[in-house]
Amino acid sequence: MKKKLLSSILAITVVSTFLAGPTSVKATVNERKQLIVQSLENTSKGNLKITNDKKTGKTSFISGDLSKRKIADGEQALQFLDQIKELLSLDNVRDFFNVKSIKKDNLGFTHVKLAQKLNGTNLDNGDITVHFNKDNVITSVSSNINYSLLNNSKSFTTAVTEQVAKSAVEKQYAKTDAKISSATKLIFNKGNDAHQAYKFNVYYQHPEIGNFDVYVDTATGKIIDSVSKIRYDGPVTGTGVAVNGTTRSLNLYQSGTSYQTKDTTKPMTGQILTYTANNAQTEPGTLYTSSSSTISDKAVVSAHSYAGVVYDFYKTIFNRNSIDDNGMSIKSTAHYGSKYNNAFWDGTQMVYGDGDGTTFKSLSGDLDVVGHEMTHGVTSSTADLAYQDQSGALNESVSDVFGVLIQTWDKYNVAKGGTWTFNPSDWVVGDEIYTPNIAGDALRSLADPTLYDQPANMSDYVNTSDDNGGVHTNSGIPNKAAFLVAQAIGCEKTAKIYYRALTTYFNSNTDFVGAHDGLVQAATDLYGASGAEVAAINTAFSSVGVTGSSPSADTYEPNDSLATAYSIVSGQTYNSFIYSTSDVDYYKLPVTKIGTISISLTNLAGDYDLYLYNSSGTKVGSSLKSSTANELITYSASKTGTYYVKVVGYSGAYSKTKPYALKATF
Fold first, then answer.
1. What does the alpha-carbon distance between residue 363 and residue 511 come to, in Å, rounded to a whole number?
2. CB-based contact 263:271 (threshold 8 Å)
3. Which residues make Cβ contacts (< 8 Å) with residue 264, sequence separation at least 6?
4. What Rg, from alpha-carbon coordinates, does the chain have?
5. Beta bridge partners of 210
6. Which candidate in 195, 372, 376, 472 is catalytic?
7. Choosing from 41, 373, 396, 557, which is the catalytic residue?
């Protein structure tokens, strides 16, 4: 028998006493957090979920029935955040946040976004959103707080005017035909240094296409950063319907005896317009015009037809009015450059090269490529996922997923009553335009990303500084998860869940874990928490090494005390980690009948020990075997109530890579 630290049991007793009733001693921050968690858990009746960001360790997502019925407005959102501020690691709320927007969606949910501010000025990247359901109950909070600037005491000065700042931008881009927006004053964090800056958008077409957000320091008038807004795709290949000679139905515009590739039939304020650059590097180029209603240019036919399909897809399923949901014109330029091997969304429109005939055919010729690129525009107008590392890979993955969904929606004629079939062979990107002389290949596969040198699991995640942190490589991981979700629940439900997650719960810094959490919340909103849809998402992301906390982290955190113990179900196996020398995991068992409680702890990375406590915090069982031997407790319970299990590493044993397996039968 090993000697165990008595302090662990004493700590449990202290916390239990604290939570039992009022105390004259002022609560510490950690004690306050425990009380908040317990209160939220009571309100949500055991369905509370809290996720910590793996980089900051701070709370990033909370879900459950978090409140009683409220008025869904900014004041109630601020009051609620003030009540749980310690859980969010905040000293106060009103000094750091102000209401930025209040939006009500088509399910009747209200989403109150609050912008983070510093010295009264909004941050460029920092916010928190409180989500109310249709009954005005708060059901989740998604946090994108910039903690590095939260308590920054740096003072800022405005020594230059907006016009002086704009002059610096004009000088920087003097060799272009730049259009420069008006400025927004904000706090911009570059590296670890905060600046007050004027933010301008710069867009130009010559000598090449550019779209940048440019930041000018308000104190010095110097440009401190320029961030490209263009979203490029990687190499793609294959043939589109019109590119391979088949007939597509087109909406044209007749002007006298001429027919233009201009679609004015959609219920939008803008139009679908398709241009040709005539092999110059210019955009939008010239609106394509024909003397006949039969358009002979295959690249133009594909671009124009597929742009209409993408509009119809988003409008029919989600009632989204064009890319920006505000009826913007959808512009496409075909024949960009000479043998140009790329297609891209430049921040305002689509651009397609013709390819060199070996690496690519006309890049407008594959609907999933068109859907991919236009979805970058949807993402920019909603979550605006940062194009770097995991959020950038998720940005690419979202475009791949919707590219496939759009193509299959069209292929199976869903708009006219066809069955939206899930077929694994459909889940590729660029197969119709990539390497036209090589049959059967594609640019990417969501069904098996490894076919094209992409990882399909977090164990193979590629850490690199190339390609903005490997955004076109590591997208294989969420791509594989999306494929598994669609395989389990079908294309239609997958589309609805992914769209709601993208437009409601994702933010600029959402990573793979955040994607899982947002998708689960979206599925819960649409189909309920206990449905097959949530289960499919959990299973899919677990299969690729992504869980609701971190691929290799304490899965059910926070569960470091009796007050935050994670509720488990009889007979189910729970995999988690003792993540540090001081980590301890608690689980609670709602025992409703007297009888035998059996608890096993297996797959151990080190010398772990197992304890069982009754509802008063008294130890009633333990298993203290040496080394990595499996632990087992069998206890005959003579009373019903809540029992608690503790898992702890002996002498600081822990592992961040090998999860233990806990199973309780009661």
1. 29
2. yes
3. 251, 253, 271
4. 28
5. 204
6. 472
7. 373
CA dist 217 and 196 (Å) reads 6
The amino acid sitting at 107 is: L
Q: Using alpha carbons only, what angle is made at residue 482 by residues 476 and 488, rounded to the nearest 5 degrees?
A: 140
* Annotated catalytic residue 373: yes
Is 55-149 in CATH node 3.30.310? yes
Give me the residue label for tokens 């090589």.
438
162-229: what CATH class? alpha beta
Residues 22-57: tens digit of each pLDDT: 333 456 888 899 999 999 999 998 899 999 988 888
* Kind of pairing between the strands at 566-567 and 428-429: unpaired
DSSP H or E segment with residue 28: none
Name the residue with tokens 């358009």.
Answer: 295
CATH no. for 6-17+551-665? 2.60.120.380
Query: How does 528-556 read in b/e, with b if 16+ C-beta sit within 10 Å?
Result: ebeeebbebbbebbbebbbbbbbbbbbbb
Asked if residue 332 lies in contact with residue 270, where contact means CB atoms within 8 angstroms, the answer is no
Tell which residue, 441, 460, 462, 461, has the closest CA to residue 452: 441
Residue 63, token pair as written in the block: 């879900």
- Give the HSE-up count for residue 560: Cα atoms under 13 Å, Cβ half-sphere: 14
CB contact at 8 A, 462 and 474: yes
Tens of pLDDT, residues 324-338:
999 999 999 999 999
CA atoms within 13 A on the CB side of 131: 26
Domains in the chain: boundaries: 6-17+551-665, 55-149, 162-229, 253-445+466-543
Task: Quote the CA–CA distance of 200 and 521 in Å, as a whole number.
Answer: 35
Alpha helices in 173-297 (DSSP H): none
pTM (2 d.p.): 0.73
Query: Which CATH architecture is the domain 253-445+466-543 placed in?
Result: Roll (3.10)
| DSSP strands (E only) in 133-192 | 138-144, 179-180, 184-190
Alpha helices of 509-573 — where are they, by DSSP H? 512-527, 532-543
Cα–Cα dist 307/370, whole Å = 7
Dump pLDDT digits (tens) for 202-219.
Answer: 999 888 888 999 999 999
Expressed in angstroms, the distance from the first to the final Cα of the chain is 26
Phi, psi of 539 (to 5 degrees): -65, -45
Can you tell me the distance from the alpha carbon of 276 to that of 129, in angstroms, rounded to the nearest whole number? 42
> 260 is written with which tokens?
């233009």
Alpha-carbon distance values, 577 to 229, 561, 660 (Å)? 40, 15, 6
Per-residue tokens: 55: 């980089």
Query: One-letter amino acid identity for 102?
Result: I
3-state helix, strand, coil in the chain (%, to 5): 30, 25, 45
